[in-house]
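Researcher: Quick test of sequence recovery. Tokens follow.
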């Protein structure tokens, strides 16, 4: 072989080696192996941005609305049709169950999650113990050899429909994705604990520190009724007593670095005000919703 041919051969071999090494490093890197975040609500929070309805998450109310699973299925089907090619949802379906914190709500959570919902809203939670049970109801029990953090899961096995809806094999859905964020950084399920009574406000410092809570969601209407001053007036303005309780809950969330959620019933200025205060998840209704 001529000298020039040997040099050329070594040159191309070197280039190929560099390319192979670079590809190997890329494949081995966490960024390359990390799969796309399916839940856009969580994606917004990870990016440090507020998550709003209906663009980032869809609030499906089965507490004050009828608890009809066929209606939920139709809603999930419509949301599923809008998934991106890589499996990401355009909006996260989050279901408020009809049962309150002191009731046996595990069966309702199992049903809505098994249908493919990406989170649950738990009304009228008043104690740490109730919040712990909420998180347990959304998680599968840890498998042998796994080091799953507490609270340990109690969700019953039946993930087939949800796995198909999300686009995963059953085991990948159940043991990699169907867990609560941020307790599991790879989890795609989001738990919202509603504080809407005086007792819940009283115990907020304990509730907010339950591992697995995605957000503390303040129910201003029921909170005002619980305090004896009535729901917000037209435009979403709270009575002074209610607003003081709202700020107490927000303060506890910010101190614990837990997301705080709020129903914005006013206009765009109200949305801007609540965002500036530190609320990161908003259920947008009223004039603010019409402006989006």
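Model:
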């Amino acid at each position: 072989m001529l000298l020039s041919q040997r040099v050329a051969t070594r040159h191309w071999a070197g280039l190929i080696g560099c390319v192979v090494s670079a590809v190997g490093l890329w494949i081995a890197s966490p960024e390359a192996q990390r799969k796309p975040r399916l839940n856009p609500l969580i994606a917004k929070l990870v990016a440090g941005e507020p998550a709003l309805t209906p663009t980032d998450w869809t609030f499906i109310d089965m507490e004050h609305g009828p608890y009809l699973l066929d209606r939920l299925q139709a809603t999930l089907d419509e949301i599923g049709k809008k998934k991106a090619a890589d499996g990401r949802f355009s909006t996260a379906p989050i279901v408020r169950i009809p049962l309150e914190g002191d009731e046996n709500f595990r069966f309702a959570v199992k049903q809505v999650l098994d249908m493919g919902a990406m989170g649950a809203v738990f009304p009228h939670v008043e104690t740490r113990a109730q919040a712990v049970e909420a998180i347990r109801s959304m998680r599968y029990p840890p498998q042998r050899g796994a080091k799953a953090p507490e609270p340990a899961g109690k969700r019953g096995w039946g993930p087939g429909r949800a796995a198909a809806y999300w686009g995963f094999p059953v085991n990948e859905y159940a043991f990699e994705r169907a867990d609560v964020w941020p307790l599991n950084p790879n989890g795609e399920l989001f738990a919202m604990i509603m504080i809407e009574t005086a007792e819940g406000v009283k115990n907020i410092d304990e509730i907010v520190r339950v591992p697995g809570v995605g957000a503390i969601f303040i129910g201003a209407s029921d909170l005002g009724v619980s305090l004896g001053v009535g729901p917000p007036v037209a435009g979403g303005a709270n009575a002074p007593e209610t607003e003081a309780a709202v700020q107490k809950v927000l303060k506890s969330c910010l101190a614990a670095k837990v997301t705080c959620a709020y129903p914005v019933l006013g206009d765009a200025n109200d949305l801007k005000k609540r965002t500036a205060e530190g609320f990161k998840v908003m259920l947008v209704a009223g004039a603010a919703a019409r402006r989006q």
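Residues 3-28 form the longest helix (26 residues).
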